[in-house]
Specification:
The chain is α+β, with helices and mostly antiparallel strands. It has helices at residues 12-20, 40-48, 59-66, 117-127, 133-146, 150-158, 166-177; strands spanning 24-27, 30-33, 55-57, 77-81, 95-99, 106-109, 112-115. It has one domain (38-177). The protein contains seven helices and seven strands; from the N terminus they run αββαβαββββαααα. The strands form three sheets. A three-stranded mixed beta sheet has the order 3-4-5. The radius of gyration is 17 Å and the shape is globular. This is AbiEi antitoxin C-terminal domain-containing protein. It comes from Homoserinibacter gongjuensis.
């Protein structure tokens, strides 16, 4: 069960009226009752919305859920476990990466799941094609939220075998998280 009910069963016109009346606000891809704070659990439920619970919010979506960045990505970013036997819907939609999810990689709020701050930082280091100061700042914020340091991030990444981009990700993690 979700920590709060999303407002997702109204026609679009009524949703707009609820927003205009100040009874709800838009958060990510969902509508949330006005009395519910935008904490990580709320953001996770809003990011997943009515999507299948097999999806796990990841990368930029997870960074936003944890509060490491102020805005969600324009296109939702998710992982799905290799064992989930999941097929993406036809056409566009969110970015979904198939990956192995280990114990401790995922935090759950009801049916909404998000990668842990540690897993999120490792994935950002691995999967981002551009990595600049903004991305490094997001990783430092995730480390602060998750209470981990560079050694823990490198250890978590090294648990996986044959990871694409592992060497570059290690360099990014060291650059972003090593003490100056």
């Amino acid at each position: 069960m979700a920590p709060f009910p999303l407002i997702d069963d109204l026609p679009e016109v009524e949703l707009q009226a609820v927003l205009l009346d100040g009874e709800a606000y838009r958060l990510g891809e969902g509508y949330v009752p006005i009395g519910v704070a935008p904490v990580p659990a709320t953001r996770a439920v809003a990011a997943l919305g009515t999507r299948t619970p097999r999806l796990v919010a990841a990368l930029g979506t997870a960074a936003w859920i944890w509060g490491a960045t102020p805005h969600p990505p324009a296109r939702g970013e998710f992982l799905v476990d290799l064992a989930a036997r999941w097929r993406p819907p036809f056409g566009g939609g969110p970015l979904v990466i198939e990956s192995r999810l280990r114990s401790g990689d995922v935090v759950r709020w009801g049916e909404a799941s998000v990668t842990s701050p540690l897993r999120t930082a490792v994935d950002l280091a691995r999967f981002r094609t551009h990595f600049g100061e903004h991305e490094a700042a997001v990783m430092r914020r995730l480390a602060e939220i998750g209470g981990f340091e560079v050694d823990a991030a490198l250890h978590a990444m090294n648990r996986g075998r044959n990871l694409a981009g592992k060497r570059a990700a290690g360099e990014r993690l060291r650059a972003a998280l090593s003490p100056s």
